[in-house]
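Technical appendix A lists one of the benchmark inputs used to test multi-chain prediction within the project. The record comprises four sequence entries:
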Amino acid sequence: MKDVAAHVGTSIKSVSRVLNGEDGVSAATAERILQAMAELGFRRNDLARGLRQSDRTSTIGLALPQAGTRFHDSLVHGIDEIARQQGSFVLTASSGTAARERETLTALCSRRVDGLIVVPAGEDHGFLRPEQQAGVPVVFVDRPPHGIAADAVLTDHAEGARAGTAHLLRQGHRRIGVVGDDERIFSVAERIGGHRAALRTEQVAYAEELTRLGARCAEEAMHACLDLLGSGQPPTALFTLNNQCTIGAVRALRRLGLTRRVAMVGFDDFETADLIDPPVTVISHDVEEIGRTAARLMFERMAGHSPAPGRTTLPTKLIARGSGEIPVVDESS
Amino acid sequence: MKDVAAHVGTSIKSVSRVLNGEDGVSAATAERILQAMAELGFRRNDLARGLRQSDRTSTIGLALPQAGTRFHDSLVHGIDEIARQQGSFVLTASSGTAARERETLTALCSRRVDGLIVVPAGEDHGFLRPEQQAGVPVVFVDRPPHGIAADAVLTDHAEGARAGTAHLLRQGHRRIGVVGDDERIFSVAERIGGHRAALRTEQVAYAEELTRLGARCAEEAMHACLDLLGSGQPPTALFTLNNQCTIGAVRALRRLGLTRRVAMVGFDDFETADLIDPPVTVISHDVEEIGRTAARLMFERMAGHSPAPGRTTLPTKLIARGSGEIPVVDESS
DNA sequence: CGCGACTACGTCAACGTTGACGTATACCCG
DNA sequence: CGGGTATACGTCAACGTTGACGTAGTCGCG
């Protein structure tokens, strides 16, 4: 800016005024300043601009355990949509493991983001309280916060899993295999809870040996399913706890030629679920809407709304496509 | 920092020293400073830190035409991987249309990113030259730059499309339908070019009426395919120019009961391609690797390497799964 | 013509941090 | 004991920008 001012032979303040469309600059001077800016390839430094603490940086922080999973992508899309409407940029950071999370989040805060959306990896987020008190709204997604009072946007995992399981029970299934990721993940635990609740309602015992957890990808889920289906008393139906597991399960059923004999309901919808044979019945939830909701909550707080922090729980929807409507085939009889 | 210093009764500089792990501070003072920082919930302002022009902001800018598409997600994943290794954050911005792109990119530059990765939407990027001269490396992805000399990381679209088309020709197909997005998109044009090159090699005429472009999503692609397959002289094979089109094509073939009669090769792999009946033959390219490559190029330039800007073209791979190996069924004979 | 109001500027400080450089005290060595 | 030097600080300016406030010149009006 100094260079531009020198080039035109005016003061730095006039350049600032032109840049911000303030008046108090004659048309002729403004013209010359604009031309000098173009010539010199001037670009305002928004970091310096956001230095005064009152000012906004027009940047919101988004922390994800890892970039590039289907869930996170849809989430990012939803958040991005709202952020763009609000003229804000999204500063993304992969928090990775719980240990790195704190470091990542404080790095985001050090960049003076106007708000923070967190998909939690760690256990305690009390360390974010100073930011919150400094007026930076924090919204948690997919898992409630611990150690801090903040908004959370969640999926009704338990109800979805209950509905999915009830759907299988309604077809007469009593031996339902469960395949999912690590139970320490909040959503996984919730889903298992819902599954068990459905079993209880129908007074069906929960069989530990039909549950295979810790499958972190489709490959691991496939092996878990092969194992499950190859056991002495295989399940007549499968309930998979996320779309990676669902895809793994389909691969396993394919291999064993059981696609039309073992029923399956999967949590999370996926784009080609209707193209698989049989089409996959899923518990779908609108992940983009979760992102939009979280972003909206955040911007509302930034705009001054400050109700007590609360939870927003979004519903799930069972989409029956075929795989979940396969009736029981009792091999033993 | 001033508050912390006042709280401890020391100078602001000592706080700075502790923060940066410099020596020249006694253990006792350091201890008291650390404690005060914890008490006051102090967080360093990295914006102010990056104000001195020589300093890096540890932030790289990534501009995408839109967030949340499969291509971009994988790309982000790859870029994020490298950025994390380098301790940098990724500031993402959706550039949307060409008109908004300039605005978006300058906003990123105004935030003083250390480097810029651009998936171009607009036609001319000459306006980025000042940044480049200021030492901010710019890397283009998926489309070469115009109006500026910069690195580009591309997929060998033409060769991939050539190989895919040749594969269908080898099965005897002579009437190959093409379904894709708008031809003004670089990758689409390149793919069509490769397709036509393959036809020329085998001296097969390119039939304009078998080409349906402008399909921006699976839905539109499906309708294009239904139209194409319902025409007087339908194609015996389909070549789809991206995964959305491939999915749309599969839906169309399903509806018409032609999945086993019309061959299909699709550009872009997708997760469940092997689960569809018949499994989908695709031209696959490693999008994450594109992201990693672009990020690596950028960080290398940031580290001082400055070879002449060039293009890196990554290869494609034909994955034969079944749909592309269906031989010609000549309905007319 | 004197006064107020307006226009078109300019100056200065502050935002939070760090590099460059200054200084007071203690300590060691010849 | 003088001089060097190491330690543990402190002061100041600068980064780029803008809010607050000052000022010189012009114009209009009574």
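The CA atoms of residues 278 and 323 of chain B lie 5 Å apart. Chain B has three domains: 2-44, 59-155+287-314, 157-284. Comparable benchmark entries are summarised in Table A2.
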